[in-house]
Specification:
Layout: H1 2-65, E1 77-78, E2 81-85, E3 88-92, E4 95-99, E5 105-116, E6 122-133, E7 139-143, E8 146-150, E9 155-166, E10 171-180, E11 185-188, E12 192-196, E13 199-203, E14 205-209, E15 214-218, E16 222-225
Antiparallel strand pairs: 1-4, 2-3, 3-5, 4-5, 5-6, 6-7, 6-8, 7-9, 8-9, 9-10, 10-11, 10-12, 11-14, 12-13, 13-16, 14-15
Length: 247
């Protein structure tokens, strides 16, 4: 009778142990799977985090290197708006200012300016406007339909419908002009017409050197003088001073 009880107790304990093992097996598998997923995530993060850092550093370096506004880095500048299309950046109403080699003030602005990030030293202007202080204290104001500014050479090239007006009473019309901003030179190899209170001067080449200290006309120069008392060809908003005729 005692043997049977021991057998029954042993059987009961064995069944409970088997039942407990059967119940614990799924929980162990779940823990193992969780640990394995955690290990995979750790390995992935070990690769992903350095990769993201490298990509960020490279992207930042490229952004700084190809930054289109680096063209304005050496000049005081203000820009009201930017738009990007492909590799071209368009700046709305850019304005630049500075001084020539002989410390004369100049300013440069435009309706819009476009730059290709692959050509960082060249800016294309739409309706550029420029002003330069001359050696005699007067100011030459320039405007054109289009223009190109070479930052490295510090040269502004104007094209189409160019008008130069001077506060000393001259107005010149050209189709092409190269403005060396730093040296204060303006050179045109195309026909030019200059009007003043004294008459009209035409030539096929113009040189304004050393901020106006030298003004030279070349290649077929003609001049028509206005009689005293005749209506002036100079616009009504020009000063009434009596400027010297350029030689």
């Amino acid at each position: 009778m005692r043997v049977n009880r021991l057998s029954s107790a042993y059987a009961t304990n064995e069944n409970e142990t088997r039942g407990f093992s059967a119940r614990d097996r799924p929980a162990g598998e779940i823990l193992f799977r969780r640990a394995r997923r955690h290990s995979r995530r750790v390995r992935l993060l070990r690769v992903a985090i350095p990769l993201v850092l490298v990509i960020g550093i490279v992207a930042t370096t490229l952004a700084v290197y190809f930054n289109p506004l680096r063209v304005l880095a050496k000049l005081p500048a203000s820009i009201s708006g930017l738009s990007v299309s492909g590799t071209k950046v368009t700046m709305i109403e850019p304005k630049l200012g500075g001084f020539t080699r002989d410390d004369r003030r100049y300013e440069l602005s435009a309706t819009a300016a476009a730059q290709d990030v692959l050509l960082r030293d060249v800016v294309n202007f739409e309706e550029p406007r420029a002003s330069m202080e001359m050696a005699d204290g007067s100011t030459i104001n320039m405007r054109a339909a289009i223009g190109t500014f070479d930052r490295k050479a510090n040269v502004l090239t104007l094209r189409r419908d160019i008008v130069l007006t001077s506060t000393s009473g001259y107005e010149a019309h050209l189709s092409q002009a190269v403005v060396d901003i730093k040296n204060g030179n303006i050179i045109s190899d195309e026909p030019v017409e200059v009007t003043s209170q004294q008459g009209t001067l035409r030539g096929n080449r113009l040189e304004v050197l050393k901020s106006g200290e030298v003004v030279r006309f070349d290649n077929g120069v003609t001049m028509m003088l206005m009689p005293e008392g005749a209506p002036s060809n100079v616009p009504s908003n020009a000063p009434s001073s009596d400027p010297k005729v350029p030689q």
